[in-house]
Design brief:
By secondary structure, this protein is α/β, with parallel strands linked by helices. The protein is about 30% helix and about 25% strand.
Length: about 475
């Protein structure tokens, strides 16, 4: 993997492990930069959907996943640099520990993009030993530029002095600041991770409190300097907070700049309805860009709140989310259910993944209640208390699908707690996973399954999907 020197002010926030406070520090840095008037472009390393939603809540900008395994180097490079075109600074939140995940780790992503890394170290149960931890990260991979350390959960001034002095004596990396244990900032969790941004797990007051803590305890000027591209002056001044500065509003779909992704735009637009609300909130943003470049006009709708599908559509894209938490509301919206059923009865093209796939099933069984859904697949989705599947998947199609001919390869990520009752044998399984599992349930022009696909793994599949929708309209 070749190192690609960054051209924009940006840095990566990595952690020594999951649970070290990486998300809290990341959100705090984002909030503090926004308070200073910077246009923050948020990114998330890896396949996670939850953290990008929190990034958007804090920054007012749509956060984008960067995943070398799912997307490949070319798409990651394009996505990062083009999303940064109108940004003042880019902040990339890592995943798990800095080197966890091998070639998909945030350490490898930082090395590939040429970005400096700030390491979050949880020192709740250590002091001088923090230096040994930092020293190990400094020497683990020579291609990673470890540029700063933030100590999280500091208990006292003495605790801070012991940890900081030890790092200064034994390590080359500068301590950029800390967050105190008394801050007690936490984000409520849910079975798939953190709560989604749509549920407002962080109030504006808490965002302001977190930004103020970062301003007080962390050297933002030093972080601004290390984030500068090496070919630019390191003395560039960082903006200071302006009283009453307005936060950037959430961008509307039509206002976002199109991002250059591998793909060939076509002149005839094909309207594709995309489910997007509190129940269906898990999407890879670059998937939308690839569909647009392939000639799609994306029309967002809410299976929760709308009564009918958008007019004159060629296809439906149902992403993931938490349909089980909104199962009662989805079930009672019979007008929308009938609208989608009628579209399917007319051989309309429907692609559904994870939560969207559950919506197409006979119903969802959750918390002792059975909630009827669309019934396009004659199975029930039942929620478990333990995780049913987790991990990257490469899917090879064994038959022609809306994404291409037999042999089409697509990569994605699987993470769910629900399982379906046995699928009848007459319904084709058109995905062969690299772990040997068969999935991808094809029923006429309907394709559904648990895998969250990233179209950047095969941009031709996005073009084929749009053309398939157009031809079957």
């Amino acid at each position: 993997m070749s190192k690609n020197e960054a051209n924009h002010p940006a840095f990566v926030v990595a952690g020594v492990a999951s649970g070290c406070g990486k998300t809290t520090v990341t959100l705090g840095l984002m909030a503090a930069c926004v308070a200073r008037g910077l246009r923050v472009m948020p990114f998330k390393c890896g396949p996670d959907f939850i953290d990008p939603g929190l990034h958007r809540l804090v920054t007012g900008r749509i956060s984008v996943n960067l995943d070398l395994w799912m997307m490949g180097e070319t798409a990651v490079r394009h996505s990062f640099h083009h999303r940064m075109q109108d940004a003042g600074i880019g902040i990339v939140e890592g995943v798990m520990g800095m080197f966890d995940g091998g070639p998909s780790s945030c350490g490898m992503l930082a090395a590939f993009l040429g970005l400096p890394v700030i390491l979050v170290v949880d020192v709740r149960s250590m002091a001088e030993s923090a230096a040994a931890v930092v020293k190990g990260f400094e020497s683990f991979h020579p291609g990673v530029s470890l540029a700063g350390v933030i100590l999280n959960r500091i208990g006292s001034e003495r605790h801070l002095r012991l940890a900081t002095d030890s790092i200064q004596r034994h390590c080359q990396t500068e301590v950029m600041g800390h967050l105190p244990r008394t801050l007690e900032f936490s984000i409520p969790s849910r079975h798939l991770g953190l709560l989604t941004s749509d549920e407002a797990p962080i109030s504006p007051e808490n965002i302001g409190r977190l930004a103020a803590a970062v301003e007080k305890y962390i050297d933002l000027d030093a972080i601004w300097r290390l984030a500068q591209p090496k070919r630019q002056s390191m003395a560039a001044p960082v903006p200071t907070p302006s009283p009453g500065a307005a936060r950037h509003p959430l961008p509307q779909e039509g206002e976002r700049k199109s991002v250059h992704m591998p793909g060939t735009p076509t002149s005839r637009l094909c309207r594709i309805a995309v489910a997007r609300d509190q129940a269906f909130c898990f999407h890879y943003e670059d998937n939308f860009e690839l569909l647009r470049r392939a000639g799609a006009e994306l029309v967002f709708f809410s299976p929760l709140n709308d009564k009918f599908l958008p007019e004159n559509i060629c296809g439906i894209y149902l992403g993931g989310g938490y349909p089980e938490l909104h199962a009662a509301a989805l079930s009672v919206n019979t007008a929308m259910r009938d609208s989608i059923r009628q579209f399917a009865a007319n051989n309309g093209v429907i692609y559904a993944e994870c939560g969207g796939f559950m919506y197409l099933c006979q119903g969802i069984a959750y918390d002792g209640q059975n909630h009827p859904m669309l019934g396009l697949y004659p199975v029930w989705a039942r929620m478990n208390k333990t995780r049913a599947a987790l991990g990257y998947r490469e899917a090879i199609s064994t038959a022609s699908t809306c994404f291409g001919p037999p042999g089409t390869r697509l990569r994605g990520h699987e993470f769910h707690y629900s399982e379906i009752t046995p699928m009848p044998e007459h319904i084709s399984r058109v995905y062969q996973f690299d772990n040997g599992h068969r999935e991808g349930y094809s029923l006429g022009n309907i394709l559904g399954g648990y895998l969250h696909l990233h179209f950047a793994s095969n941009p031709a599949a996005a073009r084929h999907f749009v053309e398939f929708c157009r031809e079957n309209h």
